[in-house]
Design a protein that fits this description.
The protein contains 14 helices and 36 strands. A hairpin with a 2-residue loop joins strand 2 and strand 3. It is an alpha+beta fold. The chain starts with 7 loop residues before the first helix and ends with a helix.
Length: 627
């Protein structure tokens, strides 16, 4: 029987929104545009108020990350008393992540700039703490082993159990040396903590092969292999059932976009397909906290969709979606009994709220609200759009129009591009950059051009060797579509992002009136040499030095005919400073009008997480002057 939830809070929320509706209807587009333009940058780009919220095993507490006295600290909220405890008040580094170890201990860790990972374990009252820097030094946490009160599994040169309370660290698996043709990843552990699967990748042949064993002492047996592309292996093991009879694969061997299969461990054969998404790709396997029951899958096309195999979860999802029409309802965490849940509710215009859903108490309680200073009635809808590229390929994306476009006025456009020029895609939902730009009067186009993930292997691989070709042309075709639709002023179009923001004004000079480059890779010859894995550099950038030079923005600066803005973070992981130095040198050499900013890396993801209002105030001023 479905449970009844208290909905007084929801009714009040809906009533509040409805009360605002008449006022909203009475305001002209000019009045709405003016009100939106007055929302300060800090309201959009505030450091996240709560990060990584996670329930304690019994569901009585919520741990999360929050800024405390200028540092990201670990905080615990006690549901019964509503007390808030700062668990790490005196740390000299930001906490990046954490997990519960039983009811009374929390394990936390961080990475400060390029220094080793720091971490520790503490009781909730702080009466006992232990530094775990030696445990985490250069290591990756493979599995926190929620059901084990003392151990976790870590990996660096070896895969080990690591006892958090002692120095016992026995080896589970020892991969071959770094000089081997093989690399290993995607370790899959069963509910008892035994390592059962490992993904062995032949880097020379670009073949991914899964190895299986019955327990930690049994020999490895190869069970399935598939080619590797940039998205990853064509087969990925996601989860092992608690009874250890079955494993669940996401495989592309029959479907271009992948499907979920059950694998019989005893007989070692791949069973029939359990689920194939009607569109998009599977992005997540959903199961209980202790991994004892498969619950469903999440797949993404232009929006996220959840398919529950568990009817009780499906019923809860339906009820919440009815209570929050038009919003995306996502379950973040649950307790061990699967009675208490953290639920995140958001939309393209709603920054997000987190609720605590307690089925025993039949209650839904608001826990945290993000970006409270933003009036959601002033935010703009993110429309799903599609258009046909020059070569006939269907391209999908999102368009957000400013208030003034409601009157049919042609408005300036900012084309947002992927920061990562290959792996990545745009998704539906609240985006502070999009809404900030729309509040300043710009239409925003987000194009999932060929090469984007989430639309199948064929669509992704159409981006091979097309950085300066068809991938860039897809963006231009998107601009042309907005002009043909009467939405955009063709003389007032900017491109903003990474590599393609540079390519848009160096490899192509007629479409964009200015460019905003945020950490873009400028020298593809350097990128080619820096990414030697699985044929990545040959397959995607191109094997010819002549081709790599032709698509390198830093080698084509002489073609720039419009103002450009450049923002790089010194020593930011993943973006080598050579791109910033080379681009600045070439801009000065060719005397091109530009604005250049090189800021220090603080240890936080300045460019990726968009928490820096100063950066966006600079961008706002640049666009105002040049668009």
């Amino acid at each position: 029987m479905e449970r009844t939830f208290r909905i007084s809070l929801l009714v009040a929320t809906v009533a509040c929104v409805m009360a605002q509706a008449p006022a909203l209807m009475a305001r002209s587009s000019e009045e709405l545009a003016l009100a939106a333009s007055k929302i300060p940058a800090e309201a959009f780009f505030i450091q996240t108020e709560v990060g990584h919220p996670r329930l304690s095993p019994d569901g009585s507490k919520v741990a999360y990350l929050q800024i405390v006295q200028g540092r990201v600290a670990l905080v615990v909220y006690e549901r019964d008393t509503e007390a808030i405890l700062v668990i790490t008040p005196d740390l000299e580094f930001d906490v990046r992540d954490f997990f519960w170890k039983g009811e009374d201990h929390l394990v936390y860790f961080s990475n400060e700039k390029w220094s080793p990972v720091f971490g520790g374990i503490t009781t909730l009252d702080g009466s006992w703490k232990k530094d775990l820097g030696a445990h985490f030094l250069g290591a990756e946490i493979v599995d926190p082993l929620h059901s084990d009160p003392e151990r976790i599994i870590i990996s660096y040169d070896l895969l080990r159990y690591s006892n958090l309370f002692t120095r016992n660290r026995p080896v589970i698996f020892q991969p071959p040396s770094a000089t081997s043709r093989y690399s290993f990843r995607d370790y899959v552990v069963d509910s008892s903590g035994d390592l059962r699967f490992v993904n062995r990748i032949n880097r020379q042949l670009a073949i991914s092969e899964y190895l299986y064993r019955e327990n930690n002492k049994a020999p490895w047996v190869p069970i399935v292999d598939a080619p590797v592309n940039l998205v990853g292996p064509a087969v990925a093991i996601m989860w092992i059932s608690k009874d250890q009879d079955s494993a669940y694969f996401v495989s592309r061997h029959e479907y271009d976009r992948g499907a979920l299969y059950e694998f019989d461990l005893e007989n070692q054969w791949l069973g029939e397909m359990k689920f194939a998404p009607p569109e998009g790709e599977i992005t997540e396997i959903l199961y209980t906290r202790n991994k004892d029951r498969l619950l469903g899958v999440r797949y993404t096309y232009m929006k996220d969709t959840v398919v529950w195999f568990d009817e009780s979860m499906a019923a809860i999802q339906r009820r919440l979606e009815k209570q929050f029409p038009g919003a995306e309802v996502r379950f973040l965490d649950s307790d061990e009994s699967h009675q208490v849940f953290l639920v995140h509710v958001s939309s393209d215009k709603l920054p997000g709220k987190i609720f605590i859903l307690d089925q025993e108490q039949a209650g839904l309680t608001e826990f945290k609200t993000f970006r409270r200073r933003i009036d959601r009635t002033l935010m703009r809808p993110q429309e799903v759009v599609n258009f046909t590229a020059s070569d006939g390929l269907e391209i999908r994306g999102y368009l957000t129009r400013p208030h003034l476009q409601m009157d049919g006025v042609r408005v300036p456009l900012v084309v947002l591009t992927h920061r990562d020029h290959f792996i990545g895609r745009w998704n539906w939902g609240f985006d502070p950059v999009v809404q900030f730009l729309a509040s300043r009067g710009y239409a925003v186009l987000q194009v999932n051009q060929r090469g984007s993930t989430g639309f199948g292997t064929d669509f992704n691989e159409r981006g091979k060797r097309q950085l300066g070709g068809a991938m860039l042309q897809d963006l231009i075709d998107g601009v042309n579509w907005t002009v043909e639709e009467g939405i955009v002023d063709p003389e007032r179009v900017a491109v903003m992002g990474g590599y393609f923001a540079l390519a848009g004004v160096t490899l192509e000079s007629d479409t964009f009136a200015c460019s905003v480059n945020i950490g873009g890779r400028a020298d593809m010859e350097f990128a080619y040499r820096a990414h030697r894995r699985w044929g990545f550099q040959h397959e995607w950038i191109g094997g010819s030095k002549q081709h790599r030079h032709a698509i390198s923005p830093s080698r084509q600066v002489s073609n720039i005919s419009v103002p450009s803005f450049h923002y790089y973070v010194r020593e930011e992981p993943g973006i080598h400073s050579i791109h910033a130095r080379t681009m600045k040198r070439q801009l000065q050499k060719h005397n091109k009008p530009h604005e250049f900013h090189l800021v220090d890396y603080t240890g936080r993801s300045t460019s990726a997480e968009n928490h820096d209002p100063d950066k966006f105030r600079l961008i706002e001023a640049f666009l105002s002057d040049n668009l």
